[in-house]
Amino acid sequence: MPLEKAQVEHIAHLARLKLSPDELEKLTLEMAVIIDYFEQLQMVDTDGVEPRDQFITAENVFRDDTVRPSLKQGQALGNAPESDGKFFHVPKVIG
Amino acid sequence: MPDYKNLTATQITAMVTSGELSAVDLAEKALDLARTEGKGLNAFISLCEDKALEQARAVDTAIKQAQPVGPLAGVPVALKDNICYTGSLTSCGSHILDGFVPPYDATCAARLVDAGAVIIGKTNMDEFAMGSSNETSYYGPAKNPVGENLVPGGSSGGSAAVVAQRIVPISFGSETGGSVRQPAAFCGVYGLKPTYGSISRYGLVAFGSSLDQIGPLARNAEDLALAYQVTCGRDPNDSTSVAFDHPDYTGEIDTDRKFTIGVPKEYFAEGLDPEVEAAVRDAMAVLEKDGHKVTDISLPLTDKAIAIYYIVACAEASSNLARFDGVRYGLREGRDKELAQMYSETRAAGFGDEVKRRIMLGTYVLSSGYYDAYYLKASKVRELLRREFERTFEEVDLIISPATPTPAFKFGEKLDDPLAMYLSDMYTAPANLAGIPGISTPYGRVGDGRPVGVQFLAGHFNELSLFQIVRILERLA
Prior knowledge:
The complex is a heterodimer.
Chain A: H1 5-14, H2 21-38, H3 73-77
Chain B: H1 9-17, H2 23-40, E1 44-47, H3 49-64, E2 76-80, H4 107-114, E3 118-123, H5 157-164, E4 170-175, H6 181-187, E5 190-193, E6 213-218, H7 221-231, E7 260-264, H8 274-289, E8 293-297, H9 305-320, H10 339-350, H11 353-366, H12 372-395, E9 398-402, H13 418-422, H14 429-434, E10 438-445, E11 451-457, H15 463-476
């Protein structure tokens, strides 16, 4: 199944990645080759197989709901590109 | 000081503990090497000079005051730059984390410091651990000490290079599909990918959460076991870490036990370099002569591992890397634009080509209409692969194979062909998919001097057998 450029553009939008026209061109070709390679899995019979997301432990981990030390506000904001010392600043969302 | 470069971690800690060597002198020596030889190899992204000397002074003081010190007292150690460590930059080899200084320590780093280790620096890596050659690092690739036109492997290329160059006796890397074992093989050092859940991932910047595992690198089996011993074990901060009653790895590393070792025919198929194959077959013959049983086995799903791996790893990466959006840390571009544009421009400027490719692939395989065909299907085949290993380890103690299909390749050789690069993980990725431990041990060299890595795989939490077999091979070689 050939991959359409429009599809790749849609995926880029979902991934919040701005692609240059060159990148879009290149990725369309590269992704098509790799996705084609993925197709070989269709040949494996997986009827009745349940996937698992935990390979070692499948038990829930409980702990008491007690207050523990956590990051101070200044530490949490310390790496922010923009903050006012109280909040992370982002561009205005509502007009 | 005795020749620092020839000292093992086990020797260093004994000499520091007895007062024969000063931790500060050792730290200064390691930092000096890092600034000179390390710089030549581009192996470090940053050094932790002040903090390292502070830690070393604390070790020396404790010894002078006859206080107990840990099992890595005074040992200089390096950490891959995706392991959070307070007071130093943690870049993940990416532009998008410019200036990021973690506000907390990874559990692995904290355990090392508690054990008396002295963390001297953060090593170069493929961006977000995505790569097999170190060439995707924003900081330029680390070089292989074996030859400067050779890649050190990846993604933990810097961690392998600093151990091979003997700047530190122990380093830590991380694996998602072979990122410790493959560079260990390329640089001629020992590398362990532990059982999933055995070393806490708290503070390891996430790539593929169901696959990621921190692992040590060293110059010999005993140091590798020591590094693992200190860092493994349950951590309340990582709910996937397992409470397992670990044996005394260094104490039990010498054994008279004779192992049954399986040779999977699929790991010796097309694409394997004949000189690498010859070295691995030589290791098999040496072990057989020593009384171990070497027997043919089959793991039919092996050739599906790379397809499963890239679907699962990219899917998980696309989700994990969503957090890099220019809000809480690192780079921000498009400051005067709308929020969504700020996100996409920050990510466009901050991520390199390989990371973008994997985010795109991951987003694609998880997107509406494709999830069942790719991610769900891959998860099911992954479960079959896990069962295949489970059945195999009912019959054999260990599996032997090459760690990589070829020795270290040259810079630029595979950079333009993503699929060829991905296939260099074909012998390592199955262990990550199944969650089992694997080790790469240097064994011989090909004609032009490039090292060969022999890989052993074992069942879950059977790291002891891995240390024992590489110790046996180390003695016989």
